[in-house]
Amino acid sequence: MSNFSSGYALTNAGAKLMADVEAGNLALKLTKMQLGSGQANTVDDYVARSALFAPQNTMVITSITTEDVGDVRTCLLKASLTSEAVESGYEATELGIFAQDSTGKEILYGVCYDSTPGYIACKTDGNNAQMVFYVRIVTTSKAMVKLALPKTAEELVALAQQKSAEAIDSATAAASSASSAATSNTYAQLAMSSASDYATKAQKAAESIKEKEILAITDSVALAINTEDSGLDIVVTTSE
Fold first, then answer.
1. Mean pLDDT per 10-residue run, the chain (240 residues)?
2. Can you list the pairs that 101-108 forms with residues at least 24 positions away whose Cβ atoms lie under 8 Å?
């Protein structure tokens, strides 16, 4: 996977926003991250840009962890991407960080560039991979950093895909337990079925014996009637 650990560069719009944030006039409202496959000579090529050279996938920032050391505040941003959301694989060379300016307009705040990029897997690669990206930005301790909620359809889809990936992990564990329970239930059903068969056979056997007893009694009574005139005493004994 791509390694964007070499740092980032602010765009002109990002530097202007950061000046207001560090002066305490505004909060830094981050909106999203975006991967791209564009080519640049250096990260400084993005200073005057408002977009990546070749945008590919948008990712919702799912968490911001802040840490203060003296007058410096570091913010660790986290976003993730599932390969099911990638139509065609590519080499991720650029990663953009977006924020809202003083008017609420979304701007390209800063960019990380990787000259030795890694491959971003796609949905046809046959491996549902989840890729997690971390970016650390630095401000002053006066800066207030916030996460703006997704608003566009693209951002909402990205958020849904993130939550879906998390749900898959939970569902896999649940499915394993459910499978074991289903197996046990199958065995129980088979045992119940066998017991039912045995009971049915026993009932039929009892009915057969009863029918034979009735036939025997009927034959004996008939014999008594036929021999009554002969003066013979015939006693019929049955057992209940």
1. 73 95 91 96 93 97 90 92 95 96 95 92 90 91 78 53 55 56 55 55 59 53 46 42
2. 101/13, 101/16, 101/17, 102/17, 102/20, 102/25, 102/26, 106/31, 107/11, 107/13, 107/14, 107/17, 107/50, 108/11, 108/13, 108/14, 108/46, 108/49, 108/50, 108/51, 108/52
